[in-house]
Structures are given as structure tokens and as C-alpha cells.
Design brief:
Blueprint: H1 19-45, H2 57-62, H3 65-68, H4 72-78, H5 87-100, H6 104-128, H7 134-143, H8 148-152, H9 157-179, H10 182-198, H11 205-217, H12 222-250, H13 261-280, H14 303-317, H15 322-338, H16 361-378, H17 386-411, H18 415-425, H19 430-442, H20 446-459, H21 464-476, H22 480-493, H23 498-510, H24 514-527, H25 532-544, H26 548-561, H27 566-578, H28 582-595, H29 600-612, H30 616-629, H31 634-646, H32 650-663, H33 668-681
Length: 683
């Protein structure tokens, strides 16, 4: 990028301005620029701050046992149990979990804060590169719509977490390049290692510093190669680790249709151009893009490579000019940072789409810097009416970006909004149908969920997860025979699928075929010895059959394997409560609520047992908490009414029963107790 002369404004020489006034003016400008970046960025992401968990946030955070375990930190660094090896990112998430557990707002605040920190660090980096209007690059990065997915989706916190140390590594390397001090090189390597331990998508950094050498000196010398050696060593080592994790954990049994060399080359050129255009004109952004048909590739699909090669050659021929070297550095950095995600190597995400906004988060930095450099070169040349017109155009573009990003951030507020938005623009996205179905199932909308799973299977018939979840939806709708057929089909597609084995066991247990059900629960545990749900559901089936002692054995075995399983504690507590063992039930309900304090059902159950133990004030506190979490929880309103009757607060109890029936007219207990309460209140 070109160094822009730091000349004073026309009509005023630097010597004629008092030094103190200049310092105050510059300081005020810096403060205003920083405030603009922070306020604009915070406004952009304000809708996401109250956003819910999305897609694989459960695997990353809410259902990640390593975060709950006090000894999880050692396992994070020493075990190969996750889909990726990003131990520093997982360490930060471990700390976050112990601060705010299942409450997503804290995680969102951290992600937004990290993104804004990166915007400020980019500003600093561009200053070091000699760009006069460096703050423009920071502002553009802070408000650009292409960054929204990385910032608003908690699972992508690895993106926002890896970028600050990477920018600090580049700043430290520039210090080394200027002063040749060994401690600056060590500092740069340390920050780069930290970035790699957050997410290895930063792996191309050594090539970026060589591109910088070419931009600055017009050539890459031996000293540059020697200085880059430790960075290449870190990249190579941790890059191999990431490839191993991708193939052994993230991809697993999935078949990723990457195709042969010509297919990969064509797809990579299309993807590179796709990302460039989305950075340039960020419209039509989607959480899941349609996959292009590139097998076999048509000749026209190689045209993007011709355009990129032609642009590169043209800039190379003009490398004696500063603007051409800046273009080579900026576009080269953009392309190099995208190289790992262009599809040359199979990645787990490619089962859904060839491209994703969060893959371009790092490359957006390069184009933001290039835009700042271009602005710095053009703005001083504007004269007369051109300057206010230029400022108005820049302001209009900035406002459009802010409003677009703000609107897109709202899409990420919950799963129903996210996947409904996706399907309105990409109706063939089988994963979006499936994810929307899962979200609807969690909300108890089983008929709607069934329809979504059906559509997912229409687009991808070999999708075992959709077959399994369709069976669950049908089971809730009372259609046992259909559920039975679909869960069997899931097991045909994936014979060692523990969830499907457990669900088949549940269906058989409901049919009264308990011995057959037990065989499937045992098969699930054979396929996955740590699969607590198998023992829990086995215990539930035995409890329904009246075999309480055996049921308790399975609950206890589940809790020995996973002592912090909230579901195991809750179901164990429910069985104990049904059989009058209230004190023991209370203990398990309390543990479930302690593990997942944001679960309304757990607080409702805890309040109900406390009421039965005549501890009305404590019961009321937990029922209040259940209703704070879910104000439309009909059963909790009914149970709160019961406690208010105990406390002789009849008129309040009547209101609670009426509210319960408003929410669920089929709640017979509320109707019965409402009649009794009205009779009691009658003069």
C-alpha cells in the first residue's frame, strides 16, 4: 500500500500552526474517529446482543462438556476430542462459561467487543503502513455487512478472537522490519502463535509478510525469508494438526464431493471472485449459499482465473509505481488469506455450501486497508466542489453499509429467524430446512417441524439426522408406526447412530416391547460408551414399566459417566418425585437447575416439589424464575397459582390459573383449580 505524504491542508503551512494547537486538533480528531468506529460498530450489532443460540452453538458451548468441567482446561489442551484443535479459543470459552454459563448475551458482548478491538488495531496497523486516512479502514471493517456472520454467530467467536492477535503480530513484525530488533520478531511470533491457537485460518500469515516485503522493497530478500522461517514453522505444524482434526473429527463419516483437480480449480476461482464481489457490493448475503454445479466444470467457469491472472500481471508490470505495488499487496493478501477455504482441501462446511461469509472475515481486512489507501490517495486531490461531493458520497456509502449490516444482524437473533430468512432466498438449502425443523421441535411445534424434516429429506434422502428427527416429531404426534419406519431408515443409513438407536428403543418401549428396547439402548452404549442419553432413556422406559430399582441403576450409571448432565438429574428427579421420594427428587432437580439455570422446566419442577414439601416461599421463587425465563409457560403459571393458594393469596392464584388457561386451554389441572379457587373466594 502506498505511503501518502503527510502534507498540511492547502493554504496553511505546517510551520505557521502552533505546535500545541496542532496536537490538540489531532488528538480531538483521533478521539472523534475512535468514537465514530465504536458507536457505529455497536449500533450495527445491537440487534445481535440479545440473540439466541444458533446452529452448532450447542456443540461449541451449550452442550460442550469440557466447558462445564472444572478440569476441562487440561483436557482442552491435551485431548483430541473436539472437531478442531483451537485450545486458546476453547480456553476463552471455558472462562466465559464460568462467568455467564448458558446466557448468550455475555458471549455476544465479547464477540462484538473483539470485532471493534480488531477495527481499532487495523487502524493502528494501517498507520504503521503509512496510510494517512487509516481510520477509514478501521471504520469500514467495523461496519461491513460481510463481517456480520462472524460477529453475530457465537460459534464463530474463533474468528473474532483470532484476529486481534494476528493484527498485533503484523504490527510487531513491522516494528522488526523497521528496527531489526530480535524482541520485536519474538513478539510477532508469540502473537501469531496465539492467533493460530484460536483458529488456524490465519495460517497464511508468513506469505503476507513476504508480500509486504515485496511491496516495501520491490523484492523478497534472504533476510525476509530468514525472518519468515519461524512463522512458516508455526503454520506448518499447527496446519497439519488442523487437517488431522478435520478429517478424523469434523468430517467423520461424511462424504465431501470435492471432485478432481479441474473441479477444485474451477470452484476455487469462482469462490475467490464471489468473495471479492461480496466485499465490494455486500448485497444478497446468506447464512447458506446455493452450491454451484462444477462437476464437470464448464470452460466459462475458469474465466475468473483469467481475470485474476490478468489483473495480477498488469499490476506486476507496473510495480515501479506505488499504487500498483499497493494493489498487488492488497489483492494478494486478500487472495492468499482465502486460499485455505477455496475448496482445494476438503472441509466439513463444504457438505452445505462451497462458500460462507465467515470464511472471508480475515480477507475483509485486506480490502478495508486497500480502500483506506485509495481514499488517502484520492481525497487530497479533490478540490473545490469535489471535496464536499466526495465527502457526501463517502458518508452515503458508510450509512448504507451501517443500515445493511444492522438489518442483517437482526436475522441472527434466533434460529427461526435465521433459517426462515435463508429459505426465503435459498429454498433448496436442505440444511436450512433441517435446522428450522430442529428449532420448531425445540419450541414444541411438532407438526411444523415434521414438515421441515420432510422437505429436508426430499432434497437429501440419505440424511440420517433428518430421518431420526422426523421419527421424533412423528412420535410426539402419536404416529408411532411412521416414526418406527423413519428411525429404522436412519439406522440403515448409519448403523452405528446412537441417537437413532435410543429413539428406536423409546418407540419400542412405548409399544410395550421393553426387552427389544433394552437391546437398542445397549447397542447405543456399545457404539458410544459415553452416550448418557441411552442410560437416561433406558431408565425412563423401565420407570414407566414400574421397574423402579432397575431404572435407578441406569440413572445412577448415567450420572457416574456424566455427573453434570442436567437431563439425567432432571429425569431421575422426575421418576423419584412420581414415586413419592420428594427429598431425593428435590436434590436432583436442584442440581439440574444449578447446571442449567436458564432452563424454565427445571425451575418449574423444583418449585413444584418445594411446594409439596410445604416450602412455599422457596417454591414461589423458583416458579417466578421459570416465568422470567419463559413468561408463556402455562404449567408454571398453574403451579404458581397452587403455591399462592397455599399462601392464602386467592385472588392472585385466580389470575395465574386464568393466565395458564389462556396459554393452554387444555390444561385440566388449571381449570379444576380455578373453579375451586373461585368457589373459595366467593362471599
Amino acid at each position: 500500500m502506498p505511503a501518502v505524504p503527510n502534507s498540511p491542508p492547502a493554504g496553511l503551512s505546517a510551520a505557521s500552526r502552533p505546535a500545541a494547537a496542532t496536537w490538540r486538533c489531532n488528538r480531538a480528531a483521533v478521539v472523534l474517529q475512535a468514537v465514530l468506529i465504536l458507536v457505529a460498530g455497536w449500533f450495527v450489532y445491537s440487534p445481535a446482543l440479545q440473540g439466541d443460540w444458533l446452529w452448532d452453538d450447542d456443540r461449541e458451548v451449550t452442550q460442550n462438556p469440557l466447558l462445564r468441567d472444572a478440569g476441562g482446561l487440561a483436557r482442552i489442551w491435551g485431548e483430541a476430542s473436539s472437531s478442531d484443535y483451537f485450545p486458546l479459543k476453547s480456553t476463552v470459552q471455558w472462562i466465559e462459561w464460568h462467568l455467564w454459563q448458558d446466557r448468550p448475551t455475555g458471549y455476544h458482548i465479547v464477540s462484538v467487543g473483539l470485532h471493534l478491538l480488531s477495527a481499532l488495531l487495523l487502524w493502528r496497523l494501517l498507520q504503521k503502513l503509512g496510510i494517512r486516512l487509516a481510520w477509514v479502514g478501521g471504520l469500514l471493517f467495523a461496519i461491513h455487512p460481510l463481517a456480520v456472520e462472524s460477529v453475530a454467530w457465537i460459534a464463530e467467536q474463533k474468528n473474532t478472537l483470532s484476529l486481534p492477535p494476528l493484527l498485533l503480530a503484523m504490527c510487531a513484525y513491522l516494528d522488526f522490519d523497521d528496527r531489526h530488533r530480535g524482541r520485536d520478531l519474538v513478539r510477532a511470533a508469540g502473537w501469531f502463535l496465539a492467533a493460530m491457537l484460536c483458529k488456524t485460518s490465519v495460517v497464511m500469515f508468513p506469505l503476507i509478510i513476504l508480500l509486504h516485503a515485496g511491496w516495501k522493497r520491490g523484492t523478497i530478500g534472504r533476510r525476509d525469508l530468514a525472518a519468515s522461517a519461524p512463522f512458516f514453522a508455526i503454520s506448518f505444524g499447527l496446519g497439519l494438526v488442523t487437517l488431522w482434526f478435520q478429517h478424523h473429527h469434523a468430517i467423520g463419516d461424511w462424504t465431501i464431493p470435492v471432485g478432481g483437480p479441474s473441479v477444485r480449480l474451477a470452484r476455487a476461482g469462482l469462490a475467490l471472485s464471489f468473495y471479492f464481489l461480496k466485499c465490494l457490493v455486500p448485497v444478497g448475503l446468506l447464512p447458506l449459499y446455493p452450491r454451484w454445479a462444477v462437476d464437470p466444470p464448464g470452460l466459462v467457469q475458469f474465466v475468473p482465473w483469467l481475470l485474476w491472472a490478468g489483473t495480477g500481471f498488469w499490476l506486476w508490470r507496473r510495480q515501479g509505481e506505488a499504487w500498483a505495488r499497493a494493489g498487488w499487496f492488497g489483492l494478494g493478501s486478500f487472495a492468499v488469506n482465502l486460499a485455505p477455504v477455496l475448496g482445494f482441501v476438503a472441509m466439513a462446511y463444504m457438505r452445505y455450501s462451497w462458500v460462507a461469509d465467515h470464511f472471508a472475515y480475515l480477507s475483509l481486512v485486506s480490502l478495508a486497508g486497500l480502500a483506506a489507501a485509495g481514499t488517502s490517495a484520492i481525497y487530497p486531490r479533490l478540490t473545490g466542489a469535489g471535496r464536499p461531493l466526495g465527502l457526501a458520497a463517502a458518508g452515503g456509502i458508510g450509512l448504507a453499509l451501517v443500515l445493511t449490516s444492522h438489518g442483517y444482524a437482526r436475522v441472527f437473533r434466533n434460529e427461526e429467524a435465521l433459517w426462515s430468512y435463508t429459505l426465503s432466498r435459498n429454498p433448496q438449502a436442505w440444511a436450512a430446512h433441517y435446522n428450522l425443523g430442529t428449532a420448531l421441535a425445540r419450541a414444541g411445534k411438532w407438526e411444523d417441524a415434521r414438515g421441515r424434516f420432510d422437505q429436508a429429506l426430499g432434497l437429501k434422502p440419505d440424511f440420517a439426522d433428518a430421518q431420526n428427527n422426523l421419527a421424533v416429531a412423528l412420535l410426539h404426534l402419536g404416529r408411532e408406526q411412521e416414526a418406527f419406519a423413519h428411525v429404522q431408515q436412519a439406522l440403515v443409513l448409519r448403523p452405528d447412530y446412537p441417537d437413532a438407536q435410543v429413539n428406536l428403543g423409546n418407540i419400542l418401549a412405548r409399544m410395550g416391547r421393553l426387552d427389544e428396547a433394552a437391546a437398542h439402548y445397549a447397542r447405543a452404549l456399545q457404539n458410544d460408551p459415553g452416550f448418557t442419553a441411552a442410560d437416561v432413556n433406558w431408565g425412563n422406559a423401565l420407570a414407566r414399566a414400574g421397574r423402579i430399582a432397575e431404572a435407578i441403576d441406569h440413572y445412577q450409571r448415567a450420572l457416574r459417566g456424566a455427573p453434570r448432565s442436567a437431563v439425567a438429574h432432571f429425569d431421575f428427579g422426575a421418576t423419584l418425585a412420581e414415586h413419592g421420594r420428594l427429598a431425593e427428587a428435590l436434590d436432583h432437580y436442584a442440581q439440574a437447575a444449578g447446571i442449567e439455570p436458564g432452563n424454565a422446566e427445571y425451575h418449574n419442577a423444583l418449585g413444584t416439589v418445594l411446594a409439596q414439601l410445604a416450602r412455599a416461599d422457596e417454591a414461589l421463587a423458583h416458579l417466578d424464575q421459570a416465568l422470567r425465563i419463559n413468561p408463556e409457560y402455562a404449567e408454571a403459571h398453574c403451579n404458581r397459582g397452587n403455591v399462592l393458594v397455599q399462601l392464602d393469596r386467592i385472588s392472585e392464584a385466580i389470575s395465574e390459573y386464568e393466565r395458564a388457561l389462556q396459554l393452554d386451554p387444555r390444561l385440566t389441572e388449571a381449570a379444576h383449580n380455578l373453579a375451586l379457587a373461585r368457589r373459595h373466594a366467593a362471599p
